[in-house]
């Protein structure tokens, strides 16, 4: 029984590590839409909840500046996407805001 719990824990660690890391070197094409950037950079870990709902946001992050800071800085399990800058960052943040639910 302990062996099974250990194997489950190790498997979960590897799965979570796949979405973690310190940074990502992804750079969006200059003309990429927010939806395309989300699909390429974010959807590996943030599966869209439905056809028109990307994710659920907390009230404290439900603004453009906070979203940009979050994806450029990363967090414990989320890599930083430092190469998403300028207009591409604005398009991604707008896509997330427009296509997310705030709770």
TrEMBL record:
Domain Cytochrome c stretches: 29-100
What domain of life does the native source organism fall in?
Bacteria
Pfam families registered for this protein in UniProt: Cytochrome_CBB3 (PF13442)
Entry GO MF terms:
electron transfer activity; heme binding; metal ion binding
Q: Which UniProt keywords apply?
A: Heme, Iron, Metal-binding
What SUPFAM superfamilies would the database entry show? Cytochrome c (SSF46626)
Question: Under what name is this protein listed?
Answer: Cytochrome c551
């Amino acid at each position: 029984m302990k062996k099974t719990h250990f194997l489950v824990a190790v498997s979960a660690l590897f799965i979570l590590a796949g979405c973690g890391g310190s940074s990502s070197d992804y750079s969006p094409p200059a003309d990429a839409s927010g939806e395309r950037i989300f699909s390429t950079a974010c959807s590996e870990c943030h599966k869209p909840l439905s056809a028109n709902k990307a994710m659920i946001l907390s009230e404290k992050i439900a603004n453009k500046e906070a979203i940009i800071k979050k994806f450029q800085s990363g967090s414990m399990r989320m890599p930083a996407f430092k190469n998403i800058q300028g207009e591409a960052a604005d398009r991604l943040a707008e896509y997330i805001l427009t296509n997310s639910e705030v709770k």
